[in-house]
Amino acid sequence: MTASPRTRLILMGAPGVGKGTQSNLLESRLGLLPISSGVIFRGEIEAQTDLGRLAQSYIQHGQLVPNGVTIEMMFKRLRSDEVRRHGFILDGFPRTVRQADALDELLLEMETPLTKVIELTLDDKVLMSRLSGRLGCTKCGEIYHSVTKPPKREGLCDRCNSPLFVRSDDKPEAIRERLNVFHKTIEPLRLFYQQRNLLVTLEAGEDPEELYHRIIDSLASHN
Ligand code: ADP
Ligand code: ZN
Question: Which of 13, 37, 118, 173 could serve as a FRET partner for 63 with CA atoms 20 to 30 Å apart?
Protein backbone atom coordinates (compact mmCIF):
# COMPACT_ATOMS: atom_id res chain seq x y z
CA MET A 1 0.00 0.00 0.00
CA THR A 2 1.23 3.53 -0.71
CA ALA A 3 0.29 6.73 1.07
CA SER A 4 -3.17 8.05 0.25
CA PRO A 5 -5.76 10.31 1.87
CA ARG A 6 -6.72 7.30 3.92
CA THR A 7 -3.27 6.93 5.39
CA ARG A 8 -3.46 7.17 9.16
CA LEU A 9 -0.18 7.05 11.02
CA ILE A 10 1.13 7.32 14.53
CA LEU A 11 4.69 8.57 14.91
CA MET A 12 6.15 7.36 18.18
CA GLY A 13 9.53 8.03 19.70
CA ALA A 14 11.48 10.02 22.24
CA PRO A 15 11.42 13.79 22.47
CA GLY A 16 13.88 15.15 19.91
CA VAL A 17 13.88 12.07 17.68
CA GLY A 18 12.48 14.07 14.77
CA LYS A 19 8.75 13.34 14.82
CA GLY A 20 7.90 16.99 14.18
CA THR A 21 10.26 17.23 11.20
CA GLN A 22 8.90 14.04 9.62
CA SER A 23 5.38 15.13 10.33
CA ASN A 24 6.03 18.41 8.47
CA LEU A 25 7.44 16.48 5.49
CA LEU A 26 4.50 14.08 5.39
CA GLU A 27 2.17 17.04 5.47
CA SER A 28 3.79 19.06 2.71
CA ARG A 29 4.39 16.12 0.37
CA LEU A 30 1.42 13.85 0.98
CA GLY A 31 -1.16 16.24 2.34
CA LEU A 32 -1.69 14.23 5.51
CA LEU A 33 -2.88 16.26 8.44
CA PRO A 34 -0.40 16.51 11.31
CA ILE A 35 -2.02 16.31 14.72
CA SER A 36 0.48 17.01 17.46
CA SER A 37 -0.68 16.94 21.07
CA GLY A 38 2.27 19.17 22.05
CA VAL A 39 1.36 21.79 19.45
CA ILE A 40 -2.29 21.76 20.52
CA PHE A 41 -1.32 22.10 24.19
CA ARG A 42 1.03 25.01 23.40
CA GLY A 43 -1.82 26.70 21.52
CA GLU A 44 -4.09 26.31 24.55
CA ILE A 45 -1.38 27.73 26.81
CA GLU A 46 -0.89 30.72 24.57
CA ALA A 47 -4.63 31.37 24.44
CA GLN A 48 -4.67 31.03 28.26
CA THR A 49 -7.65 28.68 28.30
CA ASP A 50 -8.47 26.62 31.41
CA LEU A 51 -7.03 23.57 29.70
CA GLY A 52 -3.90 25.57 28.83
CA ARG A 53 -3.38 26.63 32.42
CA LEU A 54 -3.82 23.09 33.68
CA ALA A 55 -1.53 21.62 31.00
CA GLN A 56 1.19 24.18 31.61
CA SER A 57 1.72 23.08 35.20
CA TYR A 58 2.65 19.60 33.96
CA ILE A 59 4.42 20.53 30.76
CA GLN A 60 6.90 22.93 32.31
CA HIS A 61 8.16 20.06 34.49
CA GLY A 62 8.30 17.59 31.63
CA GLN A 63 5.48 15.47 33.06
CA LEU A 64 2.47 14.04 31.27
CA VAL A 65 -0.81 15.91 31.31
CA PRO A 66 -3.58 13.70 32.84
CA ASN A 67 -5.20 11.20 30.47
CA GLY A 68 -8.79 12.43 30.75
CA VAL A 69 -8.27 15.98 29.47
CA THR A 70 -5.67 14.86 26.93
CA ILE A 71 -7.99 12.27 25.41
CA GLU A 72 -10.89 14.71 25.28
CA MET A 73 -8.75 17.35 23.54
CA MET A 74 -7.39 14.91 20.96
CA PHE A 75 -10.80 13.37 20.24
CA LYS A 76 -12.21 16.77 19.36
CA ARG A 77 -9.59 17.12 16.62
CA LEU A 78 -9.78 13.51 15.43
CA ARG A 79 -13.54 13.68 14.98
CA SER A 80 -13.38 16.63 12.58
CA ASP A 81 -14.42 16.20 8.93
CA GLU A 82 -11.08 17.56 7.82
CA VAL A 83 -9.28 14.70 9.52
CA ARG A 84 -11.64 12.15 7.99
CA ARG A 85 -10.95 13.55 4.54
CA HIS A 86 -7.19 13.94 4.69
CA GLY A 87 -5.83 11.14 6.82
CA PHE A 88 -3.49 12.01 9.66
CA ILE A 89 -0.14 11.71 11.36
CA LEU A 90 -0.46 11.61 15.11
CA ASP A 91 2.58 12.96 16.92
CA GLY A 92 2.75 12.82 20.72
CA PHE A 93 -0.47 10.88 21.17
CA PRO A 94 -1.06 8.22 22.42
CA ARG A 95 1.57 8.28 25.14
CA THR A 96 -0.07 5.84 27.59
CA VAL A 97 -1.91 2.53 27.16
CA ARG A 98 -5.06 4.19 28.46
CA GLN A 99 -4.79 6.74 25.61
CA ALA A 100 -4.03 3.99 23.09
CA ASP A 101 -7.11 2.03 24.22
CA ALA A 102 -9.31 5.08 23.93
CA LEU A 103 -7.93 5.86 20.48
CA ASP A 104 -8.55 2.30 19.34
CA GLU A 105 -12.19 2.56 20.34
CA LEU A 106 -12.66 5.91 18.65
CA LEU A 107 -11.12 4.76 15.36
CA LEU A 108 -13.22 1.59 15.44
CA GLU A 109 -16.34 3.65 15.95
CA MET A 110 -15.33 6.01 13.11
CA GLU A 111 -14.39 3.05 10.87
CA THR A 112 -11.02 4.65 10.17
CA PRO A 113 -8.37 2.10 11.21
CA LEU A 114 -4.68 2.92 11.55
CA THR A 115 -2.34 2.22 8.64
CA LYS A 116 0.88 1.93 10.65
CA VAL A 117 2.57 2.92 13.88
CA ILE A 118 6.07 4.13 13.17
CA GLU A 119 8.52 4.17 16.03
CA LEU A 120 11.67 6.25 15.57
CA THR A 121 14.68 5.44 17.75
CA LEU A 122 17.83 7.35 18.60
CA ASP A 123 20.52 7.36 21.26
CA ASP A 124 19.72 9.44 24.40
CA LYS A 125 22.93 11.45 24.12
CA VAL A 126 22.05 12.57 20.62
CA LEU A 127 18.52 13.38 21.79
CA MET A 128 19.84 15.59 24.60
CA SER A 129 22.01 17.61 22.24
CA ARG A 130 19.26 17.95 19.69
CA LEU A 131 16.77 19.25 22.25
CA SER A 132 19.14 21.79 23.72
CA GLY A 133 19.50 24.32 20.97
CA ARG A 134 16.23 23.58 19.26
CA LEU A 135 14.28 26.49 17.77
CA GLY A 136 10.81 26.47 16.29
CA CYS A 137 8.94 28.87 14.04
CA THR A 138 6.03 30.55 15.80
CA LYS A 139 4.01 30.58 12.59
CA CYS A 140 4.71 27.67 10.21
CA GLY A 141 6.18 25.15 12.67
CA GLU A 142 9.50 24.69 10.85
CA ILE A 143 12.18 23.33 13.20
CA TYR A 144 15.78 24.63 13.44
CA HIS A 145 18.82 23.99 15.62
CA SER A 146 21.32 26.61 16.69
CA VAL A 147 24.27 24.36 15.78
CA THR A 148 23.18 21.76 13.25
CA LYS A 149 20.51 23.66 11.32
CA PRO A 150 20.74 27.39 12.01
CA PRO A 151 18.33 29.74 10.25
CA LYS A 152 19.89 32.01 7.60
CA ARG A 153 19.03 35.11 9.61
CA GLU A 154 19.30 34.81 13.36
CA GLY A 155 15.96 34.41 15.10
CA LEU A 156 13.90 34.40 11.89
CA CYS A 157 12.30 31.58 9.90
CA ASP A 158 13.81 30.93 6.44
CA ARG A 159 10.44 29.84 5.13
CA CYS A 160 8.07 32.52 6.40
CA ASN A 161 10.17 35.20 8.09
CA SER A 162 8.36 34.87 11.42
CA PRO A 163 10.23 34.95 14.76
CA LEU A 164 11.67 31.70 16.14
CA PHE A 165 11.21 30.58 19.74
CA VAL A 166 12.79 28.20 22.26
CA ARG A 167 10.26 25.94 23.98
CA SER A 168 10.08 26.47 27.73
CA ASP A 169 10.39 22.71 28.28
CA ASP A 170 13.63 22.56 26.26
CA LYS A 171 15.58 23.41 29.45
CA PRO A 172 18.04 20.76 30.73
CA GLU A 173 15.97 19.66 33.81
CA ALA A 174 12.76 19.42 31.81
CA ILE A 175 14.54 17.63 28.96
CA ARG A 176 15.90 15.02 31.36
CA GLU A 177 12.47 14.47 32.89
CA ARG A 178 10.83 14.15 29.45
CA LEU A 179 13.37 11.49 28.49
CA ASN A 180 12.75 9.68 31.82
CA VAL A 181 9.02 9.73 31.34
CA PHE A 182 9.46 8.51 27.78
CA HIS A 183 11.57 5.50 28.80
CA LYS A 184 9.12 4.61 31.56
CA THR A 185 6.10 4.63 29.28
CA ILE A 186 7.21 3.43 25.85
CA GLU A 187 7.45 -0.33 26.43
CA PRO A 188 3.75 -1.10 27.05
CA LEU A 189 2.80 1.08 24.07
CA ARG A 190 5.26 -0.71 21.83
CA LEU A 191 3.73 -4.02 22.93
CA PHE A 192 0.22 -2.72 22.38
CA TYR A 193 0.89 -1.98 18.69
CA GLN A 194 3.12 -4.99 18.16
CA GLN A 195 0.22 -7.22 19.18
CA ARG A 196 -1.96 -5.48 16.60
CA ASN A 197 0.69 -6.00 13.94
CA LEU A 198 1.03 -2.30 13.28
CA LEU A 199 4.45 -1.46 14.67
CA VAL A 200 7.42 -0.59 12.46
CA THR A 201 10.65 0.48 14.19
CA LEU A 202 13.11 2.66 12.30
CA GLU A 203 16.42 4.03 13.47
CA ALA A 204 16.45 7.77 12.97
CA GLY A 205 19.76 8.79 11.49
CA GLU A 206 21.21 12.18 10.71
CA ASP A 207 19.42 12.78 7.46
CA PRO A 208 15.70 13.65 7.63
CA GLU A 209 15.31 13.15 3.88
CA GLU A 210 16.67 9.63 4.01
CA LEU A 211 14.48 8.78 7.01
CA TYR A 212 11.45 10.16 5.19
CA HIS A 213 12.04 7.71 2.35
CA ARG A 214 12.34 4.79 4.74
CA ILE A 215 9.04 5.81 6.33
CA ILE A 216 7.37 5.89 2.91
CA ASP A 217 8.87 2.48 2.06
CA SER A 218 7.59 1.03 5.32
CA LEU A 219 4.04 2.02 4.39
CA ALA A 220 4.24 -0.41 1.52
CA SER A 221 5.37 -3.34 3.67
CA HIS A 222 3.14 -5.87 5.36
CA ASN A 223 4.59 -6.15 8.84
P1 ADP B 1 8.22 16.08 23.22
O2 ADP B 1 7.80 14.80 22.55
O3 ADP B 1 9.32 16.77 22.49
O4 ADP B 1 8.47 15.97 24.69
P5 ADP B 1 5.57 17.29 22.80
O6 ADP B 1 5.48 18.59 22.11
O7 ADP B 1 5.03 16.08 22.13
O8 ADP B 1 7.10 17.15 23.12
O9 ADP B 1 4.92 17.38 24.25
C10 ADP B 1 5.27 18.39 25.15
C11 ADP B 1 4.63 18.11 26.50
O12 ADP B 1 3.20 18.13 26.37
C13 ADP B 1 4.95 16.75 27.11
O14 ADP B 1 6.17 16.77 27.83
C15 ADP B 1 3.74 16.56 28.02
O16 ADP B 1 3.86 17.34 29.18
C17 ADP B 1 2.60 17.14 27.21
N18 ADP B 1 1.94 16.11 26.37
C19 ADP B 1 2.00 16.03 25.01
N20 ADP B 1 1.30 14.96 24.57
C21 ADP B 1 0.80 14.33 25.66
C22 ADP B 1 0.02 13.16 25.86
N23 ADP B 1 -0.40 12.40 24.83
N24 ADP B 1 -0.31 12.82 27.13
C25 ADP B 1 0.08 13.57 28.16
N26 ADP B 1 0.84 14.68 28.06
C27 ADP B 1 1.20 15.07 26.82
ZN1 ZN C 1 8.11 29.77 9.53
Answer: 118
